[in-house]
Design brief:
Blueprint lengths: L1 H14 L6 H16 L4 E2 L7 E2 L1 H6 L22 H24 L17 E4 L10 E10 L5 E8 L4 E6 L3 E5 L5
Helix pairs in contact: 1-4, 2-4
Length: 182
């Protein structure tokens, strides 16, 4: 994970050199730290809508990460307001880091060997585009749809935060906590 973070930071700072001074660089690094420490480790309990994160363990507080204060687009990179530049770069860091982190969690060997099928009761991470920064949707698998070959390719998940059930392909889910059978 350190290698991934360093790679993203190196490329971002190289691509956008000259945009940040010492103070804004410090702020950007704090934003990057917040993003990394907001990643889910596990579900804190059955009823919780929020996953347990490194930030919870570091600060010993329940809700530590606030959503970003607005939407930031490419033009904000050239804004005279330095905080908008920092927020834009944090948004770019979030998109790239989330993609790398999801790939790290989803280590799949496509078509070479069978892996574990998702089961009812598994806690999974929902991977969707357009999710605000530092927001990770944890879900519980409530129904599985086996295909003709016996593999699970689609499941229904309950999202506690939204209080709704959605059907999603397994490629959009990452298994965090497998159900334990007694």
């Amino acid at each position: 994970m350190i290698r991934t973070t360093r790679g993203i930071l190196n490329s971002l700072l190289f691509q956008h050199k000259g945009l940040l001074n010492d103070e804004t660089l410090t702020t950007f690094m704090a934003e990057a730290e917040t993003i990394i420490n907001s990643r889910p480790l596990a579900a804190s309990n059955e009823a919780s809508e929020e996953p347990l994160t490194p930030a919870h363990l570091l600060t010993l507080k329940n809700s530590v990460v606030q959503p970003p204060p607005g939407n930031f687009i490419h033009n904000d990179k050239f804004s005279k307001k330095l905080w908008r530049r920092v927020q834009y770069l944090a948004e770019v860091f979030w998109c790239r880091w989330k993609k790398e982190y999801i790939n790290y969690l989803q280590s799949r060997q496509k078509w070479t060997r069978k892996g574990r099928n998702l089961q009812i009761g598994d806690i999974v991470l929902l991977c969707e585009e357009g999710v605000p920064r530092n927001r990770w949707e944890m879900c519980k698998v409530v129904k599985v749809y086996p295909s003709d070959d016996g593999l699970i390719r689609k499941v229904s998940v309950f999202i506690g935060r939204r209080k709704s059930t959605l059907d999603r392909p397994i490629t959009k889910l990452v298994l965090l906590i497998p159900v334990v059978k007694n």
